[in-house]
Amino acid sequence: MNDSVNIKEIIIEFIKNRSEINETTATRHIHRRFDISEEEIEKILEEFVNKNKIKKTYDEEYQENRFTT
């Protein structure tokens, strides 16, 4: 559980930091940066969206979901 909490904290901080410089974050950004499986990332991101910690939008150009705080 502790590792899971740490991973979640790292991911939310990464998204916040990118949001501060007006960058959105995609699953692939987190996967490449932290070598976490995309499936695991997607579960965590959906949890954050459901708890209103982050916002999800769809990027038509890249055809993927993007996340911001």
From TrEMBL:
Official protein name in the record: Uncharacterized protein
